[in-house]
Amino acid sequence: MLRPSASSDIRNDIRSTELLVQLLNPDGDRVPDPEFDHWVADVTGEQLRSLYEDMLVVRRIDTEATALQRQGELGLWPPLLGQEAAQIGSARALRADDFVFSSYRENAVAYCRGVQMGQLLAVWRGTALSGWNPFDVGMATPAVIIGAQTLHATGYALGCLQDGVDSVAVAYFGDGATSEGDVSEAMVFAASFQAPVVFFCQNNQWAISEPVALQAHRSIADRAPGFGIPSLRVDGNDVLAVMAATRIALDRARSGGGPTFIEAVTYRMGPHTTSDDPTRYRDPAELERWAAKDPISRLRAYLEHEGLLTEEFEASVKAKTDDVARELRAACLALDPPHALSVFDNVYTSAHSVLERQKSQYAAYLAMFEEVAE
Amino acid sequence: MSELRDFRLPDLGEGLTESEIVAWRVAVGDTVELNQIIAEVETAKALVELPSPFAGVIGALYAEPGQVVQVGAPLVGFEAEESAEVPAQDAEARSQAPDAAAPVQREAVLVGYGPKIDGGSRPRRKARSAGWLERPDTAHDSRSHRPAPPLRKLASDLGVDLDAVTGSGTGGLITRDDVRRHATAPPATAARETRTPIQGVRKLTAQAMVASAFTAPHATEFLTIDVTPSMELRERLKTSSAFRGERLTMLTVVAKAVCLAAARTPVVNSRWDEKADEIVQFGYINLGIAAATPRGLMVPNVKDAQGLDLLSLARALTALVERAREGKSTPAELGGGTISITNIGVFGIDAGTPILNPGEAAILAMGAVRRAPWEYHDAVALRHVMTLSLSFDHRLVDGSEASRFLADVGTILSDPGMLLTMV
């Protein structure tokens, strides 16, 4: 896990939110920033390479999962194409004992937290109602209800206060979610109790088919100060800027400074889900403009400039992404439908007579099919 | 050849029942890699690319571009390489899961750009009849007991139509024995009619025929002629050095005659442009040939047939018809025709009223060549006789013009030497 090398007064400032923090520009040039630089000063060349590999791996997970959906192996998939830096940069700043509450698009975050491929896909294949045990990886299963997870995160953070631990809860949500009442309620409670929670908003410019400008007449980061929550607005396609901002927010939360709001300005380069066709509502020129700001190509250019992009390294990344794609496909195809009677499992922690009766009736009904098969 | 592994059309959105094939990116015989794009498909929600689920060789494409395919219906047959990750039996089991005949009814989407709900095409959830829970009123449902799912599964496994089964149980209840008895009964009760969805080439053909028949007033003329001289000419040519080894058929000779006669009566090679309020006179002949292919009627055409000599025309026609029979006609070959020939003689038929290929002014049907008694040199002799049937669009072709054209074709075929007087 990466750690900040030093702390700064910046964590207590409310920075002007019209300013976009950027440490790597789209050409891959390192942009010096006296306030933010030292938050990523400890990031070694090896760690930069590791971030690059992470981003390529999750892009491959996205591609492979999209293909599996088109092949009828998954019911649905929400691609995160274009948001790799926002998710990897923030997730790699977390500690193992921090806890993530995400929406359904944070598959890169889940990958960083150690969620297995089969666990990642089970819900989308329809073979399970949730993919993993949240306590194994420090990440709740995704909330499909827009914005609901911000409340869960705030509640968890209040628990951390009660327990007297310095773990932090991180809520991931999108620009669209900020229009939901849940997000406002979560921010009110987080500010009131100075809960150790980070509100990490990926502004990917589109709430399904509604552009962000329709919902936010000022920057989304501008809203947080109204709740008494300091906010940062970072280039979400710049993995270093995202990491610096996340570390600032985590540091503040751990040291009793309360919540922070981060708006990572990024772009959803793909459809909302595999059921969506963005060409129906989106100008292709806009996609081209954002493709030029691709998070992976800028880190690649930086690595190249720093002499870190060797052939050997590229070959190892290629091998890794191929392995992950194979693993993902194999894990997906190995997910079998659950037995029909498993619907009764885990409804109550202990035996329940009514449920037991229903279960035996249902078993008898299913047995009628077995007879048929004879 | 190894058995094909079918890839069935998946539900590409949430709750879709069908998709239209926009284009194939592969052809039969192509080797594809896993996830290589094989087709573009349009659903009610989006235009999407389909990545190949297997690595292997394309063995069959089960649909045409433009065709609407039901979710669960076979789309591509692969001569797939066995792969440890995808055991064949798994693939088979999975592919059998969706039932094409009875698309699973699903609710609207949870998230995403939802499908257009347009009446008719999308199956609706039927109000559940109360019959199987309560006693039916009177004429509600002839069957007072709705068969239970296990019984329906048994019937489906045994291929029994439950509507055709008379129940022997209480209140007409169908029992398992009824179903089994029905399954083993002699096939006297086999379906007396089958219903096939109108789609693909059949649908396109029907649309073209209706459009043509009900917009262009058709008139048809018949002419029976002695084609013995053409037959003799053909025999002589076949032994000449220029034509040795070439396919020179009566169709080629008729095609040449049509081109030559159309030059004398250009109006048969024209088009009525209703929208523009204009008659389009073509200065070229794209000669369409109606071909019966395994997938239905196709009318590919030879471009600029007027400029081809007999040998070139023979080669062009052979290649055109072969491609059509193999299903490899290009969109260019299938569009832009100006006048057509249909060879009903190959089916042993003499004459009929051909329907115009849409947008064209004339179509000539050539009948079977028969040995028949015919007046020859003031006596009756057995001659090779053929009937020509010409349909024309009476909006722009008058009877006199059609008659002259048909007579010219007849003259060329019955006395090729007369060409010297025509050109």
From TrEMBL, chain A:
InterPro entries: Alpha-ketoacid_DH_E1_comp (IPR050771), DH_E1 (IPR001017), PdhA/BkdA (IPR017596), THDP-binding (IPR029061). SUPFAM superfamilies: Thiamin diphosphate-binding fold (THDP-binding). Its cofactor is thiamine diphosphate. GO terms for biological process: branched-chain amino acid catabolic process. Residues 54-322 form the Dehydrogenase E1 component domain. Keywords: Oxidoreductase, Pyruvate, Thiamine pyrophosphate. One of its GO terms (molecular function) is magnesium ion binding. Pfam families: E1_dh. CDD domains: TPP_E1_PDC_ADC_BCADC. This is Pyruvate dehydrogenase (Acetyl-transferring) E1 component subunit alpha. It comes from Lacisediminihabitans profunda. The lineage of its organism: Bacteria, Bacillati, Actinomycetota, Actinomycetes, Micrococcales.
From TrEMBL, chain B:
Residues 146-183 form the Peripheral subunit-binding (PSBD) domain. Its EC number is 2.3.1.-. Residues 134-144 have a biased composition (Basic and acidic residues). Residues 83-155, 169-195 are annotated as: Disordered. GO terms for molecular function: acetyltransferase activity; lipoic acid binding. Residues 4-79 form the Lipoyl-binding domain. PROSITE patterns: BIOTINYL_LIPOYL, PSBD. Keywords: Acyltransferase, Lipoyl, Transferase. SUPFAM superfamilies: CoA-dependent acyltransferases, Peripheral subunit-binding domain of 2-oxo acid dehydrogenase complex, Single hybrid motif. InterPro entries: 2-oxoacid_DH_actylTfrase, 2-oxoacid_DH_E2_comp, Biotin_lipoyl, CAT-like_dom_sf, E3-bd_dom_sf, PSBD, Single_hybrid_motif. Pfam families: 2-oxoacid_dh, Biotin_lipoyl, E3_binding. PANTHER family: DIHYDROLIPOAMIDE ACETYLTRANSFERASE COMPONENT OF PYRUVATE DEHYDROGENASE COMPLEX, LIPOAMIDE ACYLTRANSFERASE COMPONENT OF BRANCHED-CHAIN ALPHA-KETO ACID DEHYDROGENASE COMPLEX, MITOCHONDRIAL. This is Dihydrolipoamide acetyltransferase component of pyruvate dehydrogenase complex. It comes from Lacisediminihabitans profunda.
